[in-house]
Design a protein that fits this description.
heterotetramer; B: alpha/beta; three-stranded mixed beta sheet; 3-oxoacid CoA-transferase subunit B (chains B, C); transferase (chains B, C); 3-oxoacid_CoA-transf_B (chains B, C); NagB/RpiA_transferase-like (chains B, C); CoA_trans_fam_I (chains B, C)
Chain lengths: 228, 228, 228, 228
């Protein structure tokens, strides 16, 4: 059953040291910045973070990295024009890095959520990122065996939740959110707004409530709602 | 493909200089059949969109979860929840749809896109692609969606200058940089020539500001004329 | 689980007869924790829904693509586009969501459902389930979602009469019918007793209209009392 | 590019003898009855049909079976109270049958659409339906290797299409449609209504246009539209 939390601190209170944390977002779109900030305050450390990028600028995931809480980063694209925090940690040998092709990253989390033990992907075959992995030819095409990536916690940024935890997203901020929500033991979601159950169109729900453990409303709309 | 498919012999445009970046993009756009579903890689390939005819019916895919992507957003159009894979704010066209990352890369990996246009460091005669890593020991590896894109379209087109700044050719007998994909490139659009590559070797389709013979003299790969 | 988790010894209800079909459904409903996500298999398990308290917060999943399924549709409510897995017209509750078959079975296979209730031909002491095929040579094999359901919930409950019409027990040392799943059943609810099964063997939790000793005498499997 | 067809006959005109045809629907919900009727008129034979059931009553898929056009049926649940057509053919040895657990059926088609070479599923392990298949233990759980099911043609029943071919479905009639649309070379869809592009909410599109080759409006709404 989904818990509607009063604030982000309550939502992330029990994240344990050493957890694997799936962090939504593609760049800053869909990045659950309030949850990450709360996680920094909460203090969990020695984390493995799975996210498409390794932080942008100095906020969100970059701030978590800067706080020294991340032991290992699993991502597709750490190196960006504004990824100076990660770059510094990496060059100083202070963080481990596993680079995964973006589609394999998404599919490996989908597999974790869908109970698939492993799958053969054509992506990365013959490249350094497939080294040491099992390879098989199926129907004339070569594939590499990829395994699920499961999170202890997923931090997801969505648009609107109903009180049961059903979620809709907004435009390309959807990105990794729906997949990560299925792949973690505990899924924690920040939204711009929580609405009454029955308000969302059942045909348009993207993440069904079964995947959502905690929801917190953040930002302008939430503050307004609180004040009213 | 359109224009090039009607070629029955190699065309040498020696009455002009090499293609400018814009002209390269225009030539690629010319060769994308109307109604195609197309992914334009980050950087130079993005420019191809500017040369697609308004009535071409080409639908652009961006791997961060959208079909029907419109031009870059300007002014009030800018919405941080709506970006392309390069994290540049873009717009939405009528008939667009949004989907999550696993679905987006399933679309790609499943071979549903007609055309993908990518930049490259090197392409081999057999169509191997190197475009994600220079192999420099101090470089932070970052692959993003490159490996998924490389194997994820019916036609994979590369756009690059034919020669690096130091004069070395980027169309090579075998890639020396780490591979992105094996035998995945169909055509290479460069400033001085358009090539077909693959298991049949390298065929020159068009040249710009250079003759076939002069081109052959500058490359280490065996070339063929069309209909040789 | 609820009521049964508070048991600290086997309860023998010898002051009454065996459970009726409705009573069996009521006992199963009693043991489903509030707020659970539950799939009720075709046939007898469907009846469990009638005994879930209105305020239980239990959300019903139907594998043909819905969470938040309501009661059977009557009269004007009947909509041929809205059925349960048994193809019976049903209704939609507030907070419902629809999803396609691959997503629906990913939800199941991924272990996101809390409880699944199934009918059975046989259950073994170790929790093997046989409920899809009698093994009769002329029977047309038809499995539906039975094998997916069998392995697809945190708790798999079976509802069945303990004895077949010919008097043979359906809780057996090893299934003689073709298996649906291996070691997948957690509890077996029958007209005369509720059992816990699995790698620890068979524990009798409750009896109805029969004593523990009489029950033990009628079964070929070794039984244990709770807290033996 | 999606073609809006005038009628169902035009839509299925080129289905070849010997094709593998994926047929949507769960029972009659989402069953593309008009497309199947057109396929019967068209005459294609020696078909392999992949569908959840093997026909209900005497219409739709059952009529195709009765016309003797189906050599082989791949489904999860052929045996139903109203599957007399299939039952008769099967007992007369006039049709081959492959029974696949419903979730594996959906996931195998999803794999075909998503470019996955094969995947390890926990469903069916230790049962007759996994006999002869590769089995592997991963992280302490046993899985069976399942391969993609790809169609030459998919016949899908959806609710509304826009002129580009984006689709939305209605309630549990969604079922196999979105998955099958991704898994076939040619996807043909019947809808109740075709609307102008831009009418559907891009956040709520279930099947993006890239998966749809032909659309035909059928039924009362379509006839009304034609008359007006």
């Amino acid at each position: 059953m989904t818990l509607i939390c009063e604030g982000a601190d309550e939502a992330v209170a029990d994240v344990a040291d050493g957890s694997t944390v799936l962090v939504g977002g593609f760049g800053m779109a869909g990045m659950p910045v309030d949850l990450i900030d709360a996680l920094i305050r909460q203090g969990a450390t020695d984390l493995t973070v799975v996210s498409n990028n390794a932080g942008n600028g100095d906020t969100g995931l970059a701030a978590l990295l800067a706080a020294g809480r991340v032991r290992r980063m699993v991502c597709s694209f750490p190196r960006q024009s504004d990824s100076w925090v990660f770059d510094g940690l990496y060059r100083a040998g202070k963080i481990e890095l596993e680079v995964v092709p973006q589609g394999n990253l998404a599919e490996r989390m989908r597999a974790a959520g869908a109970g698939i033990g492993a799958f053969f992907s054509p992506t990365g075959v013959g490249t350094p990122l497939a080294e040491g992995k099992e390879v098989r030819e199926i129907d004339g095409r070569t594939y590499v065996l990829e395994h699920p990536i499961k999170g202890d916690v997923a931090l997801v940024g969505a648009h609107v939740a109903d009180r049961m935890g059903n979620l809709v997203y907004r435009k390309t901020a959807r990105n990794f959110g729906p997949v990560m929500a299925t792949a973690a033991t505990t899924t924690i979601v920040q939204v711009a707004q929580v609405v009454e159950t029955g308000t969302l169109d059942p045909e348009a729900v993207v993440t069904p409530s079964i995947y959502v453990d905690r929801v917190v409303a953040v930002g302008a709309a939430a503050r307004q709602q609180e004040a009213s | 493909m359109t224009a090039l498919d009607t070629l029955d012999r190699t065309v040498e445009h020696t009455d002009r200089g090499p293609l400018s970046r814009d002209e390269m993009a225009e030539i690629v756009a010319r060769d994308i059949p109307p109604g195609s579903f197309v992914n334009l890689g980050i950087g130079q390939p993005t420019k191809v969109a500017d040369f697609l005819a308004a009535d071409s019916g080409v639908v652009l895919h961006t791997e961060n979860g959208m079909l029907g992507m419109g031009p870059a957003a300007v002014g009030d159009e800018i919405d941080t929840d709506l970006t392309n894979a390069g994290k540049v704010p873009v717009t939405e066209l009528p008939g667009a749809s949004y989907f999550h990352h696993a679905d987006s890369f399933a679309m790609m990996r499943g071979g549903h896109l007609d055309v993908c246009v990518l930049g490259a460091f090197q392409v081999s005669a057999a169509g191997d692609l190197a475009n994600w890593h220079t192999g420099a020991p101090d470089a932070i590896p970052a692959v993003g969606g490159a490996m998924d894109l490389a194997i994820g379209a019916k036609q994979v087109l590369v756009m690059m200058t034919l020669f690096a700044k130091d004069g070395t050719a980027k169309l090579v007998p075998g890639c020396t940089y780490p591979l992105t994909g094996v035998g995945c490139v169909d055509r290479v659009y460069t400033d001085v020539a358009v090539f077909r590559v693959g298991s049949q070797g390298v065929t020159v389709l068009e040249t710009f500001g250079i003759s076939y013979d002069d081109l052959a003299a500058r490359l280490d790969v065996a070339l063929r004329r069309l209909q040789d």
